[in-house]
Write a structure and sequence with these properties.
2 copies of one chain form a homodimer. By secondary structure, chain A is an alpha/beta fold. Chain A is about 40% helix and about 20% strand. Chain A has 2 domains: about 1-95 and about 265-343, Isopropylmalate Dehydrogenase; about 100-255, Isopropylmalate Dehydrogenase, CATH 3.40.718. In chain A, helix 6 links the parallel strand 8 (about 180-185) and strand 9 (about 210-215). In chain A, helix 5 crosses helix 6, helix 7 (about 215-225) runs parallel beside helix 8 (about 235-250) and helix 10 (about 305-320) crosses helix 11. The structure holds 3-isopropylmalic acid (2 copies). One 3-isopropylmalic acid (IPM) sits at the interface of chains B and A. Chains A, B: It holds the Pfam family Iso_dh.
Amino acid sequence: MSVARIAVVAGDGIGTEVTAQARKVIDAVLPGADYNEYDLGARLYNRTGEVLPASVQTELAGHDAILLGAIGDPSVPPGVLERGLLLKLRFDFDQYVNLRPSKLWPGTTSPLAGVKPGEIDMVVVREGTEGLYVGAGGVLHKDTPAEIATEESLNTRHGVERVIRDAFDRAQRRDRKHVTLVHKTNVLTHAGNLWSRTFAAVAAEFPGVTTEYQHIDAASMFMVSNPQRFDVVVTDNLFGDILTDIAAAVTGGIGMAASGSVNPERKFPSTFEPVHGSAPDIAGQGIADPAAAILSAALLLEHLGRHAEAARVTEAVAAEVASRTPGAPLRTAEVGDRVAAAV
Amino acid sequence: MSVARIAVVAGDGIGTEVTAQARKVIDAVLPGADYNEYDLGARLYNRTGEVLPASVQTELAGHDAILLGAIGDPSVPPGVLERGLLLKLRFDFDQYVNLRPSKLWPGTTSPLAGVKPGEIDMVVVREGTEGLYVGAGGVLHKDTPAEIATEESLNTRHGVERVIRDAFDRAQRRDRKHVTLVHKTNVLTHAGNLWSRTFAAVAAEFPGVTTEYQHIDAASMFMVSNPQRFDVVVTDNLFGDILTDIAAAVTGGIGMAASGSVNPERKFPSTFEPVHGSAPDIAGQGIADPAAAILSAALLLEHLGRHAEAARVTEAVAAEVASRTPGAPLRTAEVGDRVAAAV
Ligand SMILES: CC(C)[C@H](C(=O)O)[C@@H](O)C(=O)O
Ligand SMILES: CC(C)[C@H](C(=O)O)[C@@H](O)C(=O)O
């Protein structure tokens, strides 16, 4: 049996460039893994009109994890690749823990005055299979003055409880052991009430973990005024999408923002990808920063139980970033080489 | 006939303290206005169980504008006062333009390194009567493992078009004449498509205004990495709630964040209130900053067509804030006195 079967979906734009580095680093730290490459994204769609052929999805399901680069291109209408590929994988592979660590690394600069490396260290546990992302909605009387469009947020006790429990599990293994629930209970009273009650119930199982609640608007403000206060944050799909981009911004941009769409039971493969997009404007030049992609590979290793290997990759990326000369040009492949050599 | 009939809902916590200053300043600049005070908020609710008695609502409807302080207290369950008072006024009085200017004023400091006063100057035009705020949703199988909770976002062409047109109108009267639409068209495809199509249609009526689209996650990031880029932003109710708190954070906090819930046709009274809450922790001490409340009064004057008076109030607040000694204690009433004397 193979050490690990990894599906590689490098995708569009800089996706292919950064994914090559992530793979290089996994290879260095976990020799003998099997890779299968899948050409999905804008190219496939523009050539064939297909986004995720059923046969490919079946093959993907046979892997331990999916290493994803970036999906998206201005030539494709909004939603097609997102709904048809990224979100389809999250939903069909029950990737209910959308994991997004944010850390201000040595060598990086926060746009926030006076915040120093090491001071921000949080992980947002974003629900990945429910909420407004389910695609429940429609349009009536399109293109007439009577048009209405709806979007429905669906939240189940099942879905809310499991992601909250995952957040508490993680908090318990961290230094500060603190979980913040973020929602908008004063307006979204139905879903908010379900989240609050479930949060309280799960919290009772973790007496060693301290808790806090914040509305999404207040939390977004605190992400700017005092991001140091956050340890583990648990929230719904849409709020998590927004909060993690603010968290990335205050930790110096999406250059270091890794993510995992995780099925913790490993019943289905989990997907690991940088938060950044395909960046068509700089694609093909070999200048994209692969740090976020390599850190996503570290999350992948962690998920496969390769804790020591994951730690080595994370440390190597941190060291590489800390050693950079501010303002000096960056070569994608050289960063990958340096990290691969260091692990 | 009276110069203006203003309903005063000072509300909870520091609401009463800051509203007194706002009223003092309106009095100084617009002598002869009639005021009626309404005791609404946590006190009334805790005493009587009522939030907005029908008779009070009828009386409020007879005013030109409502000056509101802050509503909310930990003793009241989440949603009761928000849904029953603040949102009820927005919906029943058709306050579809939720106006939130954000400016980095001289004398204030942004938490963002290197951003200087004068560089951030935007107004978010947030839709105020639709979206996820309509309260459409419910709970099934409560407190069982089968529980589900829903929230529905309702968007009409009517509602979307009028707020977008308002945003373009405002942009046309500003220096940069630029409108950014913020939504999440790649996930909320139904509502997103309605917003995008309507935005394009209205934009065609304003050839002198430049336009741009951003996803809410990207816009939230830009609010931190490059808030200078925004001029007028138009967005839905929930995204506007979040974005305006980030905008407040990067312009030095909610101390200067004013807002108006506006019915532009003046068929119903509009509400003007600071974005900050009732701050029970500092209530009663006379140390709350009334700047946001007074700037909200300036928005009120502007709405009533008192452009010169509004400008004088805004300038007086700006001057007062610029004259403050950093770190020196602030007395609510003295700030009010100084601004009232200056206008
Ligand atoms: C591309 C888009 C569908 C996706 C999301 O909204 O989840 C992205 O923004 C992310 O955060 O992974
Ligand atoms: C108090 C709450 C209902 C309100 C909102 O969500 O609109 C507040 O956050 C605001 O921004 O005015």
